[in-house]
Amino acid sequence: MMTRIQRRRQRRGERGQSTVEFALSLLLMMGFVLFFVQLSLLFAYGNLVHYATFMAARAYQAAGMTDQDQVRRARDTIVRLLKKSQGEPGLEKYRFIAQGEGGDGDVSGLTLGPGPQFDPKNIDLSWMQGVRYSFRGKVSMVPIGAAGRPNSNSVTLTSESWLGREKSFGECMTYMRKLGGALIDNGC
User: Fold this and answer.
1) What is the spatial distance between Cα 109 and Cα 84, in angstroms, rounded to a whole number?
2) 80 close to 136: Cβ distance less than 8 angstroms
3) pLDDT band, residue 144 (cuts 50/70/90)
4) What are phi and psi of 64, to 5 degrees?
5) Fewer Cβ neighbours under 10 Å: the N or C end of the chain?
6) Alpha helices per DSSP H over the chain
7) Spatial distance between the Cα atoms of 126 and 132, rounded to a whole number of angstroms
């Protein structure tokens, strides 16, 4: 049986324990909250990217005067929805959430044209043309990233939309001339 003095000495040694436990629990809970906020922002941005790639694929699909006109309209759609401005196609509109990754032009993350399965000679795969946009977003459990590894707390996501591409008016006219000089047709 402990004496009264022994109990008092034991309690004095435990002073501040609840404060330390509260501080550690608060850090852990704030880490979870920050993680879910970052994840929610990344998913919302992913939804915007999905919409942008679909709209760009529609612009790419629609017939135009030239094939370059179709590419320009698709590129402009992505820039209008995801980038800062037409004059700055490399700068992200929401760079605090994610940034374009890769790509094959001046618009980071954007790839236009045939997909990896595209085969112009195979009727089943000849339509696989469209838009691909890849982006990298930061998602971390701890507010402080791993030192020396800048991409350790990030994830790369890709949105694709393959709707095909209509022949441009110029391509259609070239094809019709090969057939013997026909000028008007209801489609190529």
Assistant:
1) 14
2) no
3) low
4) -140, -175
5) N
6) 4-13, 17-61, 67-82, 169-178
7) 17
Residue in 174, 176, 173, 132 with CA at minimum distance from that of residue 156: 132
Sequence letter at residue 29: M
What are the residue ranges spanned by the domains of the chain? 23-142+153-178
Token representation of residue 100: 């374009």
CA-to-CA distance for 109 and 137, rounded, in angstroms?
12
Provide the pLDDT for residue 157.
Answer: 92
Report how far residue 132's alpha carbon sits from residue 105's, in angstroms, rounded to the nearest whole number: 12
| Bridge partner list, 161 | 131
Distances (CA, A) of 50 to 17, 28, 55, 71, 100: 49, 33, 9, 18, 13
d(CA 115, CA 74): 15
3-class SS of residue 47:
helix
Q: What percent of the chain has pLDDT over 90?
A: 27
